[in-house]
Specification:
19% helix, 202 residues, alpha/beta, 8 strands
Length: 202
């Protein structure tokens, strides 16, 4: 289990686990299509329990955009599906420690190909959504993108400018080159995709 804190650490350069999504476990091979869902229940076989479920469409949209950020640069695709115990990556709320401290965690199998993962975010954190400028709030999208990185096999980086650095920095609000290197090391570069144009109702 990997948890994030708002501190300044010393870690090591981009590294990955020896596991990945996809039929082939060879680094640089496609991760194929990984399903994800907004958890709606706790199941006996899941890694960690959720304390609540993410039902707000604004939060759900930020999560989907965070998955897309990784798919845009790496050879792995994500599909949103209804929640069941068999979904690859399930996301929900947890009550960690309130504002500050732990922002979220991601849990993956200790060995073998990646087949399931749980991402939990601190429900009581002082989150901000979208491009709202507020230095006292924590960027939800940044945090989710970081946790997805763990769920696809990326560990922490010692590059303080990387999104996968161990500790939150509000000025690092997009995937950086070190993050791109990490996902491409596991899954190769993004392949050509069909454009999807979404139309939203505020």
């Amino acid at each position: 289990m990997i948890r994030e804190k708002i501190l300044r650490p010393i870690t090591h350069n981009f590294s990955t686990v020896d596991q990945k999504w996809g039929t082939s476990q060879e680094k640089g091979s496609s991760g194929e299509v990984v399903t994800y869902s907004f958890a709606a229940a706790n199941f006996p076989i899941q890694f960690s329990n959720f304390d609540n479920f993410i039902t707000d469409p604004d939060y759900q949209n930020e999560i989907s955009l965070s998955f897309l950020a990784w798919a845009d640069v790496g050879g792995i695709q994500f599909e949103l599906v209804p929640d069941t115990a068999l979904v690859n990556i399930r996301i929900g709320w947890a009550n960690f420690d309130g504002p500050g401290g732990i922002l979220g965690d991601a849990t993956i199998p200790a060995s073998g190909p990646l087949s399931s993962a749980v991402i939990r975010l601190d429900e009581l954190e002082n989150w901000k959504l979208g491009d709202v400028e507020n230095s006292s709030q924590i960027d939800f999208s940044l945090t989710v993108t970081h946790e997805i990185g763990h769920a696809i096999g990326i560990l922490h980086s010692d590059d303080e400018n990387a999104l996968m650095h161990e500790f939150y920095r509000p000025d690092v609000n997009t995937l950086r080159q070190d993050d791109i290197n990490a996902v491409q090391n596991l899954y190769g570069p993004a392949t050509d995709q069909t454009n999807v144009y979404r139309y939203f109702n505020k």
